[in-house]
Inverse folding.
């Protein structure tokens, strides 16, 4: 039975991933994510139901629109596969439960934020601002996180990055972190609690620094080259869901070897 529901979680995740692709494309442009129906961005023709099967349709069509033959970005199946894996991973951790649905919704929101931030270097308020109260309620009433723990996650998460952003701007005379990152960390703190924030900020900073150095080396950019921080916050937040509590407990209460 677990195998059956595990497969269902993968199929469900891939289907949601198809919808997330719509969100990633339309939200930055201020378009509705409901209307019109899915269509080719090149020729505008509506996508047939048989051509809208996650991953498989892209493979069958060899990554091209059936009507105009224009290439379809491999990002579409990538997002669907990623979301399917996240759905399965949350199912593996929480089983068939409300906790699974809440954690998967959190991960799905982070997927949309990650790809939009990569493309446009923005984190839409339409996701992060409603996400703060929504994930606060889910954390308290579904995940069993303490009310104060979640509330402090919001206040400390948003306030911590705000202080860093202000300090960086005062020292360098240029903006180094946008308000979107601040709201995103507040959303993460709401769902994971204030104790997660040290881990999330530390891990995301390490990942961001490593990727930044690699990009500078490859592209020959100077240190002013902008690297969006939202994706690294998102990766660290998902990582915390699975191992962050154990690692944080190890560091705080047992110390490093």
């Amino acid at each position: 039975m677990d195998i059956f529901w595990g497969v269902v979680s993968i199929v469900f995740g891939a289907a949601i991933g198809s919808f997330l692709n719509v969100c990633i494309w339309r939200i930055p442009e201020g378009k509705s994510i409901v209307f019109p129906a899915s269509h080719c961005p090149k020729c505008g023709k509506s996508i047939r139901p048989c051509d809208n099967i996650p991953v498989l349709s892209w493979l069958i069509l060899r990554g091209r629109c059936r009507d105009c033959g224009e290439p379809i970005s491999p990002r579409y199946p990538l997002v669907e596969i990623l979301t399917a894996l996240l759905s399965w991973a949350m199912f593996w951790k929480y089983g068939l439960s409300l906790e699974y649905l809440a954690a998967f919704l959190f991960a799905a929101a982070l997927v949309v934020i990650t790809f939009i931030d990569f493309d446009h270097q923005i984190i839409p308020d339409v996701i992060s601002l409603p996400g703060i109260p929504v994930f606060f309620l889910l954390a308290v009433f579904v995940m069993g996180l303490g009310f104060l723990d979640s509330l402090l996650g919001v206040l400390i998460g948003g306030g911590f990055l705000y202080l860093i952003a202000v300090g960086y701007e005062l020292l360098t005379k240029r903006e180094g972190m946008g308000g979107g990152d601040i709201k995103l960390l507040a959303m993460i703190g709401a769902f994971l609690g204030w104790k997660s924030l040290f881990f999330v900020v530390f891990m995301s900073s390490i990942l961001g620094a490593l990727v930044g150095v690699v990009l500078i080396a490859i592209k020959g950019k100077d240190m002013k080259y902008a690297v969006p921080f939202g994706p690294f916050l998102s990766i660290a937040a998902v990582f915390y869901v699975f191992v962050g509590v154990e690692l944080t407990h190890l560091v705080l209460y047992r110390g490093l070897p």
The radius of gyration is 20 Å. Residues 147-172 form the longest helix (26 residues). The mean pLDDT is 86.
